Amino acid sequence: MYNTLIRGGTLIDGTGGAPYCADIALQDGKIAAIGHDLGAAAQVIDAKGFCVTPGFIDIHRHGDAAVFRPGFGVAELRQGLTTILNGACGVSLVPFGNRHKDELLHYLEPITGRLDPTIPTESLGAYLAALRQVALPLNVGMMLGAGTVRADLFGYAEEEPADLSPIHRALERGIADGAYGISLGLGYAPECFYTTDGLIRALQPLKDGDIPITVHMRHEGDGVCDSVAEMIAVAKALRCPMHISHLKAMGKRNWHTKIPRALELMAQAREDGVDITCDVYLYDAGSTQLLHLLPPDFLKGGVDAICARLRDKNQRDLLREAIAHRHDFDNIAQMVGWENIMLSALNLPEYQHLIGKTLAQAAELLQLDPVDCLCQLLADERCAVTMIDRMACEDDICTILNDPHSSVISDSTYPTSGKPHPRVYGSYVRIFERFVLEKKTLDLPTAVRKITALPAEAMRIQNKGLLRVGMDADINIFKPELLHERATYLDPTQESEGMDTVFVGGVPAILHGAWTDAGTGAVIKHQAG
Ligand SMILES: [Zn+2]
Asked: Number of helices and strands (H, E) in the chain?
């Protein structure tokens, strides 16, 4: 007798193939059989009229600290997410020792929120061991951030370290500890200081291996195609898998032209034998540190050095000049305009009234020029400010979705205060509600594939992403037309609705809409070989 039988559902199995009707039997956390008349089970779920899919997989979240917080997982499971990877964009919350610890934690706060100080950060192994003590509602794995590795060892200095072997050893250890990939954040300090050759030298331990590099590229606006070319060159030099994170073309002047070209470059590289894939998030607004508006030369030396620069009148004038005229960095303020940059998290009591306001509005309220307003907020908050910037265009998102090698991610950030981006709560419902049913950009099997088998393949996550005998029993049961994203930019912390039943490891985490508190998620690790 099986543990569970899911009877009479329409299976959308993750391959992208046509839906078909069959029963699924679950036993000991695995899919034990798929077919008809499978026999008796202790628990029978009637799925007639429902879609049955693999559990959804988000390979790009910043929940490194959030996974330890009470209540974590509800917002995720309400969208059918059963597996997530944290540690994206080069800024994982491990590994680091004490030398730059406070600075690192403070620098990462707008992205990951505050970390419980009892959680060990010195190695991925120690961090994952601590995570194993938590009753996780869903499966959680990690990538190792190459930016964190460099900042831990060499701080935020601009000069390339003369001896890269400590970086090599840290990457090797992270891989041995089970990292699914090495994430890069080439738009952030200190990785923005790498030359392409320096980057290839730093990543030597990945050469000829099967550990993917995931990359938040150096440029995502005017220079996005150059950045794609750069990453293809890195992949060719290292002969390892390359995955471009949150592909986008920021700034109106780049819409409609840059993305088709970027996808073409990747298709060409694949013909040349390069293993390259990409992902996209489903919103025309991003969310990151407000610090990201500054050019790389303003980010040298870490928080104290940055704050000193922001308070210096001459430096402010230089910044004004840079934002007005420079094109050699992702000049977000210039590309999208102050009216499209919303302040989403600030810590100081005197600035709480600015949360939800754009920089243009904040400048007016503080009676400052926008550049002075930016400098004052960043300096007073010691750089820990989060923004939501409206910079992309939905047509480009659709173009990326239509590429057969693109997965869908959320890029969820978890600042401890202020307003999160609605994508934390809504991404995996939005794909159906907006891009399958409303805009008809994707058909149902393709949409399911982009949030199951494709991301699992890209990150070498084994035994997940397909409805197949022997795979892990992470399974969703739902009617697509009942899924609804409730989160909005002004009221983001609202759970999605409509997911009927979600199995994690063969046990329902949500059963007919009710939260079960099963806690059957696992810490997952990359398995070598
Ligand atoms: Zn990123």
From this structure: 17, 21
Whole-number Å distance between alpha carbons of 391 and 379: 24
Q: 446 CA to middle of ligand 1, Å?
A: 24
8 three-class SS: strand
pLDDT at 142 over 60: yes
SS (H, E, C) 277-307: EEEECCCCEEEEEHHHHCCHHHCCCHHHHHH
Domain ranges of the chain: 56-284+392-511, 289-390
Q: How far is CA 337 from CA 223, 248, 250, 377, 381, in A?
A: 18, 17, 11, 17, 22
Task: Tell me the average pLDDT across 183-189.
Answer: 95
Instruction: Determine the distance separating the centroid of ligand 1 and the alpha carbon of 245, expressed in angstroms.
Output: 7
Cα torsion through 195, 201, 202, 207, rounded to 10 = 130
| Encoded tokens for 462 | 């084994």
Is residue 13 predicted with pLDDT exceeding 60?
yes
The CA-atom distances, in angstroms, between 369 and each of 136, 239, 317 are 47, 48, 12
Q: Which two tokens stand for residue 216?
A: 């938040």
CATH of domain 56-284+392-511: 3.20.20.140
Q: Which residues surround ligand 1, an ion (CB under 5 A)?
A: 89, 216
The DSSP letter of residue 398 is: H
Where would I find the beta strands (DSSP E) of 226-359?
A: 242-244, 276-280, 285-289, 341-345
- Residue 236 CB: number of other CB atoms within 10 A? 16
215 C-alpha to ligand 1 centroid (Å): 8
Q: Name the strand (E) or helix (H) holding 5.
A: strand 2-11
CA 492 to ligand 1 center in whole angstroms: 20
Instruction: Name residue, tokens 């000991």.
Output: 28
Tell me how far the alpha carbon of residue 323 lies from the centroid of ligand 1, in angstroms: 21
Q: How many CB atoms lie within 10 A of CB 132?
A: 11
- Written as six digits, the tokens of 227 are 């950045």
CA of 171 to the centre of ligand 1 (A): 19
CA 449 to centroid of ligand 1, rounded, Å: 22
Report pLDDT digits (tens) over 39-84: 999 999 999 999 999 999 999 999 999 999 999 999 999 999 999 9
How many angstroms does the Cα of residue 493 sit away from the middle of ligand 1?
Answer: 21
**Residue owning tokens 């907006």:** 434
